[in-house]
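Weekly puzzle thread! Below is a chain. First person to post its structure in C-alpha cell form gets bragging rights.
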Amino acid sequence: MSAALIDGKAVAADLQARLAERVARLRARHNVVPGLAVVLVGEDTASDIYVRSKLRASDKVGLRSLEHRLPASTSSTDLLKLLDRLNADEAVDGILVQLPLPPHIDPTPIIDAIHPDKDVDGFHIVNVGRLAAGRPGLVPCTPRACEILLRSVGTDLASAHAVIIGRSQLVGRPMAQLLLRADCTVTITHTKSRGLAELCRGADILVAAAGQAELVRGDWIKPGAIVIDVGINRIADGGKGRIVGDVAFAEALPRAAAITPVPGGVGPMTVACLLENGFDAACRRRGLDPAAI
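Winning reply:
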C-alpha cells in the first residue's frame, strides 16, 4: 500500500474558486465587498512572504485588501491605536496581525484588542470560547484547514479515534474542539507525553502539530490511518536547507491510507480558510448567513 496524497493546493484552489463566486454574489445582492486589513510589523522575511501570499489570494477572490506595514520600532501603544481605528472602520470586516511580532511587543494584548467579530485568525479569547461552547464564530484557520482536508478524502469522522500531537492555542487545542464537534474520540498528546509512539499507533486520524522535524516515524502510524502533517521545519541537507514536516514522510507512505505532503498540504488551505473567515465576518457583521450566499 502507498498512501494517497492529500493535495492541499488543489483543495484550496477549489475552495477559493467557490469563494470568489460567493463574494461576487454578496456584492451583487447586497453591495458589500469584504475588506481585509493585514498588519505587518517589522521586516521578518518569512512574515513578508506570508503577507504577500495572503494579499494576492485576497485580491484573487475579490476581497478588498488593506495593507499596513509598520517599522520594527513601532510601540505597542501605536499598534493598539491602529487596531482601534481598524475596529471602528466599517469598511474593514477582518483584521489580521501577522505573527510573530517584534520581541518588545507582547502579542496577547494585541490579539485581545482586535474586535472578535473581525478576528479572522480566530485567536481572540471570545472566539476561543465560542468554539469550545459549540457556538458560531471565527475558527482558527489551520485547524479548519485540517478538518476540510480530512473530509476531502471521504474520512468518516464520526466515532474515529483522532490523536493530535501538539497542545498549542493556534492548532492543537482548537483542532481537538473541531474534531470533538465532528463526533471523533480525541486524544491530545505532546512531545512530553509518556508512550507517545504507542498512543499514535491507536489513531485512525493522526494530526501532527508538534513543530519537531520528522518526529513521527513510520512505525508510529496505524496501517490505514489518515495523517495530517501541520509541521513546517527547515533542516540541513547536504549543505542545503529543505522543508520537512513533523512526520517522516517516506516512512509513512507505506502505512498511511492518505497523507498531506509538506509543503503543499495544510499551508495552502490555511490561506484559503483565512479568506473564508473574512467573507464570513463580512456577512455576519451585516446580519447575513454566510451559508446562504
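Puzzle host: Confirmed. Bonus trivia for everyone else. The domain at 30-117 is CATH 3.40.50.10860 (Rossmann fold).
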